[in-house]
């Protein structure tokens, strides 16, 4: 395997990498970095947690150090939290350069962002909506000289999902020079390959990691077949088991809606589990604060919608639970990819109801992997079933309660249930 300097990186950059524990390049870095340094466009498709971020950050920093100016590089990404994470990587690796970055995302102060953009930062990391707003409303900054356009989670940026970025991308591409290097990365590029090739016109270098499966080998992929009504009892039981059996653990639970996120958080807190949530109906400052507390292990359980499914790199996450079976195999790949990163091991457990069996079959077929059943003592789950369901209903009725009104309802809920297992 090549080392970092033989790939064309300067000594100062190799030293920075070593400080961060990056000693040898991962395959996506080894393959893509020389092509990027040669000036080619690049499409890199490699599994979750395989170091795609450094595969584009390092060559950009190398080129920036040879000819530093602002704005040199624009990175687009679908979520705000991911934008902060990528900017952090640029900042840490680019420290010796005195790198100036600017993060342009929704939910944060637009005037501050406008001022920072005017100051010609070297690197702008943005979500498309907010950057397009700045381009539409201001002419105090120019991106006509950028050398690099990077789309991280490129397939998500180009697909027409619930958040459709295509209009904003058109505005942004209109403000960029035609002569530039375009770099596209994701763990799931293949569905949108044609659209991606249209953006990276300059005979892109395409690299995809060769593997039987689309998920990492270190990940133990499990499912639990459960009737809808027993799902939450399984969840509480699983969390209790992990709490009992592991000292140092943290877990992300994915669910389908913001409301469900909120209700599950309230419910699990009633069982005294250290739970915090992340979803798009929260104020942005709260989103950042919650994620920071989860990363610092102040809270061990994060309940999130798919806003947290892509890109987030939190090494302590050992378990991912899919409270709902993802409707698309690629959403499954990104969700379970929040654990078992960079060679670590991890477990994913998908709760599957009778209505979701076809979804699991399609996940297994497309990802070329088999999910194994997760063994659970059903008797133990049934013992807590009533208590869990009553607690959940109380949380649903109360909505966002004043603390005392919720406690009142939950005390009566507990009176229904004689098993004191989780008090
Ligand atoms: N060469 C390397 N050696 C060791 N660790 C590395 C190396 N490159 C990156 N890492 C670490 O691996 C972790 C995962 O990297 P990264 O977040 O870039 O993965 P990714 O491929 O972008 O995953 P995802 O598809 O989930 O976004 C990070 O903590 C990063 O610091
Ligand atoms: Mg990534």
TrEMBL record:
Keyword RNA-binding recorded: yes
Major subcellular site: nucleus
Molecular-function GO terms, alphabetical: ATP binding; hydrolase activity; RNA binding; RNA helicase activity
Protein name: Probable ATP-dependent RNA helicase DDX49
Coiled coil: none
Enzyme Commission code(s) on record: 3.6.4.13
Organism: Scophthalmus maximus (Turbot)
Limits of the Helicase ATP-binding domain: 33-207
Catalytic activity: ATP + H2O = ADP + phosphate + H(+)
Keywords (A to Z) from UniProt: ATP-binding, Helicase, Hydrolase, Nucleotide-binding, Nucleus, RNA-binding
């Amino acid at each position: 395997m090549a080392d970092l300097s033989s790939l064309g990186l300067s000594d100062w950059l190799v030293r920075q990498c070593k400080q961060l524990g990056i000693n040898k390049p991962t395959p996506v870095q080894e393959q893509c970095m020389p092509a990027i340094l040669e000036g080619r466009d690049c499409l890199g498709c490699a599994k979750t947690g395989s170091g795609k971020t450094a595969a584009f950050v390092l060559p950009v920093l190398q080129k920036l150090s040879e000819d530093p100016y602002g704005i040199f590089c624009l990175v687009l990404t679908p979520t705000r939290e991911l934008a902060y994470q990528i900017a952090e990587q640029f900042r840490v690796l680019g420290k010796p350069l005195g790198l100036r970055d600017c993060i342009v995302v929704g939910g944060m102060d637009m005037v501050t962002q406008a001022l920072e953009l005017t100051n010609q930062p070297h690197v702008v990391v943005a979500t498309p909506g907010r950057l397009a707003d700045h381009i539409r409303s201001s002419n105090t900054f120019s991106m006509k000289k950028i050398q690099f356009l990077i789309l991280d989670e490129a397939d998500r940026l180009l697909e027409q999902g619930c958040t459709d970025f295509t209009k904003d991308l058109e505005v942004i591409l209109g403000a960029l020079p035609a002569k530039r290097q375009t770099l596209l990365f994701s763990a799931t590029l293949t569905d949108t390959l044609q659209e991606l090739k249209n953006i990276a016109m300059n005979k892109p270098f395409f690299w995809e990691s060769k593997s039987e499966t689309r998920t990492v080998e270190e990940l133990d992929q499990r499912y639990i077949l459960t009737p809808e009504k027993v799902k939450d009892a399984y969840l509480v039981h699983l969390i209790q088991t992990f709490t009992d059996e592991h000292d140092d653990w943290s877990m992300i639970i994915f669910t389908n809606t913001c409301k469900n996120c909120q209700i599950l958080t309230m419910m699990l807190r009633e069982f005294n589990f250290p739970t915090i949530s992340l979803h798009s109906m929260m104020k942005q400052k709260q989103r950042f604060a919650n994620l920071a507390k989860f990363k610092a292990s102040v809270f061990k359980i994060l309940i999130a919608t798919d806003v947290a499914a892509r890109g987030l790199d939190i090494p302590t996450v050992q378990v991912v639970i899919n409270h709902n079976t993802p409707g698309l195999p690629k959403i499954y790949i990104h969700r379970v990819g929040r654990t078992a990163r960079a060679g670590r091991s991890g477990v994913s457990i998908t709760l599957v109801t009778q209505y979701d069996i076809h979804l699991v079959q399609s996940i297994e077929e497309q990802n070329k992997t088999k999910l194994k059943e997760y063994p659970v003592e059903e008797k133990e789950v049934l013992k807590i079933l009533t208590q869990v369901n009553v607690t959940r209903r109380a949380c649903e009725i109360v909505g966002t309660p004043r603390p005392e009104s919720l406690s009142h309802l939950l005390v009566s809920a507990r009176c229904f249930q004689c098993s004191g297992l989780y008090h």
